[in-house]
Design brief:
heterodimer; A: mainly beta; six-stranded mixed sheet; 11 strands; 0% helix; globular; B: mainly beta; seven-stranded mixed sheet; four-stranded antiparallel sheet; 49% strand
């Protein structure tokens, strides 16, 4: 099955700086890559996703890049704010109604 | 639009007791998932339903876990008898085929 690895496990940045989280996947058939943000005591919330037919997608301060050849994708958050502090999970799927395989999570702390 | 509803939010039981969690997906979502999230890890799929049929239950510990989705809407996940290692957050999620997976807030289980 799919194996998703995520780095780093923890990340601290100063407010206003950028944060980058990286993931690799093993299944070359995976074609859907979402990122979820999970705040304490809450369920994961989708923040951005990318499909294999594009290499980059942006939504305001958040961007995701995908390198299918290398089987890795990254989340970029610019101009970080304290409310960005949370655990972020990457995931991979073969798309359709297929299951998501999650990474182990990155705890992001934005220091005011 | 109402999100995925789960109950109870929190449950503490003794080992060997039983527990049941309920989920009501987003209206119109044919696909329903139950994930288990152990503290410090990413969610892992337990079972996936398409309407009222099981699509994938390969990771469900069938000797103690059961799930049903009668009438293709609400779902119930049961654990009997519970073990200490079942302490986790049980996340219900739903989607329309091929689209974003939305998660509920989760049901937090502590087995003592």
């Amino acid at each position: 099955g799919e194996n998703v690895e995520q780095h780093p496990s923890t990340l601290s940045v100063q407010e206003g700086d950028s944060a980058v989280i990286k993931c690799t996947y093993s299944d070359s058939a995976s074609n859907y890559f979402p990122w979820y943000k999970q705040e304490l005591g809450k369920g994961p919330q989708l923040i951005i996703d990318i499909r294999s037919n594009v290499g980059e997608k942006k939504d305001q301060r958040i961007a995701v890049t995908l390198n299918k050849t290398a089987k890795h994708f990254s989340l970029h958050i610019t101009e970080t704010q304290p409310e960005d502090s949370a655990v972020y999970f990457c995931a991979a799927s073969r798309g359709g109604a297929n299951n998501l395989f999650f990474g182990t999570g990155t705890r992001l702390t934005v220091i005011p | 639009e109402a999100g995925v509803a789960q109950s109870p939010r929190y449950k503490i039981i003794e080992k060997r007791q039983s527990v049941a969690f309920w989920c009501n997906p987003i209206s119109g979502h044919a696909t329903l998932y139950w994930y288990q999230q152990i503290l410090g890890q990413g969610p892992k799929l337990l079972i996936q339903f398409q309407n009222n049929g099981v699509v994938d239950d390969s990771q469900l510990p069938k000797d103690r876990f059961s799930a049903e989705r009668l009438k293709g809407v609400d779902s119930t996940l049961k654990i009997q008898p519970a073990k200490l290692e079942d302490s986790a957050v049980y996340l219900c999620a739903s989607s329309t085929p091929g689209n974003t997976i939305y998660f509920g807030e989760g049901s937090w289980l502590t087995v003592v």
